[in-house]
């Protein structure tokens, strides 16, 4: 069962009528209620994205955002597992379906969470792209690193080439470069901390960097 969520979020991103909220252990996507000055999610009403599923979501978004019209017959209306707990079809916890809207002449994507109560979310490709940008911008925030450290990490991801990011992740780069950022803001302990973060989260940070290169942030942040 997905419980009701009443705790305050770390950050939030708007996707049409939906909200993507970042908490200290996961991302939550759905339509929250607004009570007593806080956003709250009712039980079994949202999509929970756990840390250990982040890479699978990057794979899904990469596949979905490369879809072109018209869909191939084998791509239409086929339920595919995004998050599985086993190979059995009935054990798929989160699935997606690509379909075509003949009236609007566009591809739509439906994501369904099946943990207890089925909850589905429908997107056109523009909305899905916004969901992807929000996911990319928020997923690293669940680790709750100090703000100045997080800013440093994303400054490097934004301004440095992929080859440099790979060197940091593999711990083969001896010096941290801070493009556009004053070195006076960071001491050696900070720089060592940033270096360790790239090694610790190398797969996720490489995915974020790769997605930045191929899918730039062309929409306004929420």
What key phrases describe this protein's structure?
alpha+beta, 222 residues, 6 helices, 2 domains, single chain
Tell me what the structure shows:
The protein has six helices and ten strands, in the order ββββββαββββααααα. The strands form three sheets. The chain has a four-stranded antiparallel beta sheet, with helices on one face. The chain has two domains: 11-138, 2-Layer Sandwich (Secreted effector protein pipB2 fold); 145-214, no CATH class. With 222 residues, it is of the alpha+beta class.
Strand content: 15-25%
Numbering strands along the chain, what is their spatial order in the largest sheet?
Answer: 1-2-3-6
Using the coordinates shown, work out and report the CATH topology of the largest domain. Answer: Secreted effector protein pipB2 fold
C-alpha termini separation: 30 Å
Count up the domains. Answer: 2
What's the overall average pLDDT, rounded?
87
Helix-strand string: EEEEEEHEEEEHHHHH
Named CATH architecture of the largest domain = 2-Layer Sandwich
E-strand count: 10
Helix segment tally? 6
State the helicity in percent bands.
Answer: 25-40%
CATH hierarchy, class of the largest domain: Alpha Beta
Low-pLDDT stretches: none
Biggest sheet overview: 4 strands, antiparallel
Integer-rounded radius of gyration: 19 Å
Task: Please tell me what the overall shape is.
Answer: globular
Secondary-structure-derived class: alpha+beta
